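[job 4471] stage=fold_predict status=RUNNING
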Amino acid sequence: MGSGWGALEVRTRWPARRGRRAAFADDTLGPDQQPWLQLWETGAFPAQTQPVSTNVGPQWTDKLLTLGDDWHALLHLGLLRHSTGDHAGARAAWQKSSALKENPWSLRNLAVVEQDATAAAALLTHAHALLPGNWQLTNETLAALLRAGLASDALDLISGLDSAQRAHGRIRLCECRAALAVGDTQRAGAILRGPWEISDLKEGEDSLGRLWSDYQRAAGTDEPLPYRYDFRMHPEPAPC
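[job 4471] inference complete, writing structure tokens
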């Protein structure tokens, strides 16, 4: 059986295919789909303090537009427009959403489509202030500050994080990069030699290798790349 999203798609786009024998039966509809099912059937989203699960598709455009000045509907309208390549329309929807209700999700999305690195960092910093406990947003904010050349601001943000976020591998990676950017090789070296782990590294990712090379140059050391940081793909030796 498929997921509830398949059942919602059948319900809203191909109602003639409904039925328990279908690959996407109605009984697979779950909590993630219920707000969208309510929008489809009643024309209204339930009141939200944070966004419901993301969903896009041409059948939702008119439904979202009929909700008018609703920050939540405009957030999703922006996501729908962005998925079709209408980045200008997406930006307009998120700007209106944020103006109606200051919310971190629209601000974050505006940062994604912002071309100026400094402006994007400012938007993400604002979003992070509204949602400080989300480590993924913290990571994106730190990365944006580093791209904008604002390493000191990144370190200031890190100093205000809770202990769980500060210990997260991706946050530690950003901290190390920021420390190197401001010339604090001692802080960077302590992170690199400490007990830390980035749990979502994939084979072939060279972020740790490049970070170590940056540290080597900054600290003036020729210490080789530690094995635990080497996620590069090595070709098999050619046959003799």
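[job 4471] summary: The two ends are 50 Å apart (CA to CA).
[job 4471] exit 0
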